[in-house]
Amino acid sequence: MLSLTHYPFLIMDQQLPSGTLLSLESGIFWRAARTNEDTDRVGVSEQSPEDSHRELLHSLKSILPTMAAGKKELLMLENFIGGKFLPCSSYIDSYDPSTGEVYCKVPNSGKEEIEAAVEAAREAFPAWSSRSPQERSMVLNRLADLVEQSLEELAQAESKDQGKTLTLARTMDIPRAAQNFRFFASSILHHTTECTQMDHLSCMHYTVRTPVGIAGLISPWNLPLYLLTWKIAPAIAAGNTVIAKPSELTSVTAWMLCKLLDKAGVPPGVINIVFGTGPRVGEALVSHPEVPVISFTGSQPTAERITQLSAPHCKKLSLELGGKNPAIIFEDANLEECIPATVRSSFANQGEICLCTSRIFVQRNIYSEFLKKFVEATRKWKVGMPSDPSASMGALISKAHLEKVRSYVMKARAEGAQILCGEGVDQLSLPLRNQAGYFMLPTVITDVKDESCCMKEEIFGPVTCVVPFDSEEEVIKRANSVKYGLAATVWSSNVSLTHRVAKKLQAGLVWTNCWLIRELNLPFGGMKSSGIGREGAKDSYDFFTEIKTITVKH
Ligand SMILES: NC(=O)C1=CN([C@@H]2O[C@H](COP(=O)(O)OP(=O)(O)OC[C@H]3O[C@@H](n4cnc5c(N)ncnc54)[C@H](O)[C@@H]3O)[C@@H](O)[C@H]2O)C=CC1
Ligand SMILES: N/C(=C\C=C\C(=O)O)C(=O)O
Fold first, then answer.
1. For residues 86 and 78, what is the distance between their CA atoms, to the nearest angstrom?
2. Which of 299, 440, 447, 494 is 20 to 30 A from 279 via CA?
C-alpha cells in the first residue's frame, strides 16, 4: 500500500493498480500492467498517441465533463458550490505547459458565484462547527485516504496542469496533500486552552477558541493541491466552512478533489471551490463582508491588493509570499552533500517554490571548486517531458512566466554577468510535440553584483546566482540585504557556527546542512516582504479560530 513519506523527495513504495494510466505526456500512455503480483513491480506497455489521448480523456471524462473543440476534446471544469458541480457563463483557457496547447476550460467566475458560495458556506456553518473535533478529524482522515487512493490520477493531472515532472507530483505534491489532511486530523485533537485562578476574588478565567466562520482561501499555481489542502485542512478541522479559489493556471486537481468530498463525508457547503481569475472572482471573495479571514499564498503585489480590499472589513490575513533565499556555504561545508542539495533547492519544481535558493554565497577559498562542481551537477539536472522518469525538471507554468524568467538572464548578461550554463549557453533538445512548451534550462549566473535585479528580485524560475564571500559578518549582512525574509540554508560542519549564523539571518525558516525537511508542527512563513503570519499546527489553528477569555465568579 502507499507509504506516505514525511520527506517529499523520498520515492514511496506504492502499488499501482493494473490499468492505471501512468503517463499522459507526449501522447504516449504507459499502462501499468502488473508483471508480478508479489513484487508489485509494474511493467509498462506503450500505446499509440491517438489511443492514449482517447484513453486519458475517457479516464478523466468519468470525473470531468469535456467539450468538443474541433478535433480535440477539452476538459471543462465546473465550480463546486453547496455540494454541487455548477457550470459557469464564461470560461478561461487553461494550457498544458509542456505543449503550449489549450486542454482545459476553467470557469471565469465572478461576484454571483461568490455570493452563491457564501450562502452555501453560511448554511453549512452551524452544523459543521458544532461537530466535535473527533468527528471532523474522521472526515479529514477519510479525505487523506481518498487522496492517497487517487494518487496516480491526481499526480498525472497535476503534472499536466502545472508542468512539473510526474515524479515530483507523485513523490511530493500529492503525498503532501494527503499528509496535510492527515496531519490536521491529528493536530485538531490536541490543542489546549488556558485557565487562571483569582482565589482572592473567587474568580477563574479560561480561554476558548471558536471557528471564525467562512474562510477565504486563495492559492497559487506552483504547488497547486499541496498548498490548497495546506489551507483547507486546518480551516475545516477548526470547524470553519471555506470558499477556496485556486489559481486559474492550475485548477484541475482542486476540481478533482471536489469529486472526493462527498465520499469522505464532507457535508455540502463546507468546502466550496470557485474558479477564476484573481481580479474578478478573487477580489469578489476578498471584498465579501461575510468572509472574515483570508489565507493567501502568492506574490507580494497581489498581497498588497488583498490588503487594500480587505482593510475596510478589518479582516484577518495570512499572507505567505515570495522569497530571495540565500544558501551560505562555508569553507568547511561537506560539498558532497551540499552540492546536490543546493542544485535541488535551486531548481526543484522548475525553481517555482517560494523556498527555492536563488542566491548562493560561497566562501572564497572554495569558490572555484564549488563553482566547477555545481555547474557540472546543474548540467545533469535534466529538463524533459514531465512524464519522462529521468527528467528532473519539467516546463514552467506559462509563456508569460517563461519570458519573465528569461528576461532576468538577459538583464544579467547585459550587466556583464557571466552565464555559466543554461539559458543562452547550452542547447535544450525536446521532442517535436514539446517544442512549443514553456521549457528552460537550469541557469547559473556569476560575476553579478549584489545590487543587480537578479540578486534582489524574486525570479521564481530555474535561475540561481553564485557569488563569493570572505567573512561570516560580511555574508550575513549581504544575505539580509534584500526586502524578503523567507528561507535560507547554511552549510558548515561547525555546528556552533550554523546556530550562530541561523539566528542572525532575517528568515522565517533556516535549514542547516539540508533543505526542505518540513516539520508541520512548527511555524512556517517569512518576515519582511515575505509575508504576514505563519502556518503550522498551532499557527494555523490560531489563525482559523477566534480566542475568547471567559471569567467566572464562584
Ligand atoms: N508562493 C509564492 O511565493 C508564489 C509567488 N509567486 C510570485 O508571483 C508572481 C506572479 O505569479 P501569480 O500566479 O500571478 O501570483 P499571484 O499572486 O497573482 O496569484 C496567486 C493567487 O492569487 C490570485 N490573485 C491574483 N490577483 C488577485 C487579486 N487581485 N485578488 C485576489 N486574488 C488574486 C490568483 O488568481 C492566484 O490564485 C510569480 O512570478 C512569482 O514571482 C507566484 C506564485 C507563488
Ligand atoms: N508556500 C510555498 C511553499 C510551502 C511549502 C510548505 O509548506 O512545505 C510556496 O512555494 O509558495
1. 5
2. 440
DSSP structural state of residue 6: S
Atom of ligand 1 nearest to the CA of 246: 37
Using most ligand atoms within 8 A of CB, pick from 219, 353, 520 the residue to mutate for ligand 2. Answer: 353
Q: What is the pLDDT of residue 6?
A: 35
- The whole-angstrom separation of Cα 454 and Cα 98 is 26
Catalytic-labelled residue, pool 320, 352, 458, 535: 320
Give residue 60 CA to ligand 1 midpoint distance, Å: 27
Alpha helices in 163-223 (DSSP H): 166-168, 174-187
- Residue by residue, DSSP assigns 499-520 as HHHHHHS--SEEEESSS----T
In a 3-state reduction of DSSP, which class is residue 190? coil
Sign of CA dihedral 375, 424, 413, 443: negative
Percent of the chain with pLDDT over 70: 87
| CA 22 to each of CA 172, 184, 273, 304: distance values in angstroms, whole numbers, following the listed order | 16, 30, 27, 41
Residue 283 annotated as catalytic: no
Mean per-residue pLDDT for 339-356?
Answer: 98
Place of cell 465546473: 78
Provide the pLDDT for residue 73. Answer: 85
Give the start-to-end residue ranges of the domains of the chain.
1-76, 109-320, 325-520
Question: What would the mean pLDDT of 1-15 be, rounded to a whole number?
Answer: 32
Has domain 109-320 been given CATH number 3.40.605.10? yes
284 lines ligand 1 (CB under 6 A): no
| Residue located nearest, by CA, to atom 7 of ligand 1 | 299
CA–CA dist 264, 144 (Å, integer) = 9
Instruction: Quote the CA–CA distance of 250 and 253 in Å, as a whole number.
Output: 8
Give the span between the Cα atoms of 258 and 163, in whole angstroms. Answer: 22
Closest CA to 415 of 445, 443, 442, 440: 445
* C-beta separation of 20 from 34 below 8 A: no
- The pLDDT of residue 158 is above 50: yes
Q: How far apart are CA 73 and CA 67, in angstroms?
A: 5
Cβ neighbours for 88, distance < 8 A, ≥ 6 positions apart: 78, 79, 107, 108, 109, 113, 275, 276
Please, are residues 121 and 241 in contact by the beta-carbon 8 Å criterion? yes
Per-residue pLDDT at 493: 98
Q: How far apart are CA 151 and CA 475, in angstroms?
A: 43
325-520: CATH homologous superfamily? Aldehyde Dehydrogenase; Chain A, domain 2 (3.40.309.10)
For residue range 430-470, what is the model confidence (pLDDT) as tens digits?
A: 999 999 999 999 999 999 999 999 999 999 999 999 999 99
Ligand 1 centroid from CA 298, angstroms: 4
Q: How far is the CA of 296 from the centre of ligand 1 (A)?
A: 9
Nearest-angstrom CA–CA distance, 517 and 9: 9
pTM for this entry: 0.90
